[in-house]
Amino acid sequence: MKFKPADAIQDLQFFGEFGGVNPSISDTSTYTFMSAKTMLDTFEGNTEGCYLYSRHSTPSNGYLGEALADMEGTESANVSASGMGAITPVLLQLVGSGEHIVSSRTIYGGTYAFLKNFTPRLGIATTFVDITKVDIVEAAITKNTKVLFCETVSNPLLEVADIRALSALAKKYNIKLVVDNTFSPLSISPAKLGADVVCHSLTKFINGTSDAVGGVACGAQEFIDDLRNVNNGASMLLGSTMDSLRASSILKNMRTLPIRMKQHSYNASFLAHKFEADGLKTVYPGLESHPSHQLFTSMMNTAYGFGGMLTIDVGSLEKANALMKLMQERNIGYLAVSLGFYKTLFSAPGTSTSSEISEEEQKEMGLTNGLIRFSIGLDNDIERTYKMMKSCMIKLGVL
Ligand SMILES: Cc1ncc(COP(=O)(O)O)c(C=O)c1O
User: Fold this and answer.
1) Which residues contact residue 389 at a Cβ distance below 8 angstroms, ignoring those fewer than 6 apart?
2) Which ligand 1 atom lies nearest to the CA of residue 214?
């Protein structure tokens, strides 16, 4: 049967304490016990539905986690204070000193910096590969490899990972496939294609209002329990816990994610086709010219389209900066990092979100100075937006 992630969101039913249509917020850091015996059982992880201390778990975080697990089709999920607060404990839970990670080389700059600069201090080595070449990925796997890491749609180059093929590799070598699905919520469901753990930065499309930072790791119940283990769980011990008030606000926003993703995708697809027809070097997985267009199509939940992210290359950093400045002045969107807002956001990744990656490496992976990354907003009249953008491009000689 076809997986329908929006139905999972539609069917959420959490009553508030007094019958509220939104669940009550657990505005507390600690919890009382009716007897000392239950306290011991809870510490030992034996008591279902009992809460101990809010760094471990809270009812509000539980509701949001359940919603996200349902959306990704996993048994369970653990929410965290940021996307990095989800990704880093997942990796540290799965990989230890002397062990190895194979990672896509085109990933979010923060994750790249974590793997390149931070984890070597803990004796964890990472080999970065072109994730679109499965034979190269396989060749990088060693006897010490524990994790294969990638983004479904990569930041910022919008390369698409073949989750089915990578999952087959992971199973062959008995390693875990960890996928960051931040760029393609609903459009692609990596766990349904064989990923073991699916992470998100909730900061982006899922929250959608650019007012919160959050993250999640979705996976098997046993793994999520491991992350929260009071003795050796990386999430529990590193402590990047989401606040309950924030979990409650993100859950409310998440209910409109299906309609938002459809509109982001519709608008991005409209602009990508127009920009390409205008002769701009445009990258969008929904374009037939995208090298992984067929692959994306073979993995997608069609109703949500190809996502809200696209890039254009305007030739130089100077032109990119001038165009972004003008588009902001004309109120087309904001010159800002991040993504998934109602308004279009644009940035030059080479000097912002991917600045952790050295110039030489950027060149090698095709990250050029003139690249502008767009997170296309929810504009009601995208044709009007296109005309405004085009007039900026003509004024600056980009077109
Ligand atoms: C693909 C991707 N993964 C992870 C992150 C990190 O998330 P956060 O900023 O919520 O820690 C980001 C963005 O910042 C991202 O774009």
Assistant:
1) 271, 327, 332
2) 10
Ligand 1, atom nearest to 155 Cα: 1
User: Bridge-partner residues for 313, per DSSP?
Assistant: 281, 371
Q: Could you read off the pLDDT of 102-148 as tens digits, one per residue?
A: 999 999 999 999 999 999 999 999 999 999 999 999 999 999 999 99
Pocket around ligand 1: residues whose beta carbon is below 6 Å from it? 82-84, 108, 110-111, 151, 155, 180, 182-183, 201, 203, 213, 215
Which residues fall within 8 angstroms of residue 56, CB to CB, at 6 or more apart? 228, 230, 236
CA of 34 relative to ligand 1 center, distance in Å: 41
**Residue identifier of the C-alpha nearest atom 16 of ligand 1:** 108
pTM of the model: 0.96
Phi then psi for residue 85, to 5 deg, are -70, -10
Could you tell me what percent of the chain has a pLDDT over 90? 88
CA of 152 to the centre of ligand 1 (A): 13
Nearest Cα to Cα of residue 365 among 377, 381, 378, 349: 349
3-state secondary structure 139-188: HHCCCCEEEEEEECECCCCCCECCHHHHHHHHHHCCCEEEEECCCCCCCE
Q: Closest Cα partner for 199 from 225, 180, 174?
A: 180
> CB–CB of 323/314 below 8 Å?
yes
Distances (CA, A) of 330 to 165, 192, 323: 44, 42, 11
Encoding tokens for residue 348?
Answer: 């030059």
Report how far ligand 1's centroid is from the alpha carbon of 367 (Å).
18
Q: Which residue has the tokens 């529990």?
A: 236
Cα(391) to centroid of ligand 1, in Å? 32
Question: Dihedrals φ, ψ of 102, to 5°?
Answer: -105, 120
Cβ neighbours of 55 (radius 10 Å): 16
Closest CA to 326 of 336, 335, 337, 317: 335
